[in-house]
Amino acid sequence: PAIPCDPLTCILPKCRCAGTDTPGGLTKDNTPQIVMFTMDDGITQNNFQLYQDLFSGLINFNGCPAKATFFLSGDNTDYSLVKILQTQGHEIGDHSVTHRFPVNWWIQNSYSDLEFEVINQRKAIEEMVGVTTRGWRTPFLASTENVFSVLADNNFLYDSSLDSYPGLWEIPLVPWQCNATEEIFGTMIDECKDPGDEESVYEMIMRNFRLHYEDNKQPFPIFGHSSWFDNAPYKKSDLIRFMNEVVKFNDVFFVSAQDAVQWTQSPIGLDRNPFSCPQ
Question: Residue 88: helix, strand or coil by DSSP?
């Protein structure tokens, strides 16, 4: 069983117990609403154009460009396109060399085999993109003790899968409410079946945002895969509509997963201009 977190010893900036309270004791009115958009797997010409369409000209209220995180696997990836995304300010995370099947491979394999997947992909990103990734998401979310040990031993800052581990920050996959009657939930947006029409998709996204924004401003995750957009063009237009609407709020910030972790380590209220950038 998991060891209970002790808030007396788990203290920022090194540690924080999971909870609904705001880091740093900020009031709700002084807390930025973080929005994290993350996509998994390879970068191809098709999904690269999708990401350009989503983020082109999208500016946070403070004048800084909106950011996303791309958890990159080495299979089927055009690194010249990854470099463009990184140059635009987006974060490149590690998602393994091969993203191999079956799922059980990730659960049952040895430390050394998993280390190959984690570290060789990090090296590929360093060589081809010029950045050292600090974040990881396990393929199929199939994390084990061995995966976490590899990450902790190699100075990763955070994981974003389904569990937590001492020495690593965890970005949880908060379930989405896929329908208004709260009967269906999905760990990622692509686990929510298509509601079937343009307005319903927009309402689903906005409803889930409000569950965070109108509560305690917990970070709002939009996590998934580009394949979710493939079968209905209005999904992209609905997401763009949502993004363009909420980015007008003076307390909403589209930031990378690493930015979100670093803000949690050292919380800055709205009165001190969080997530600022050179103007």
Answer: coil
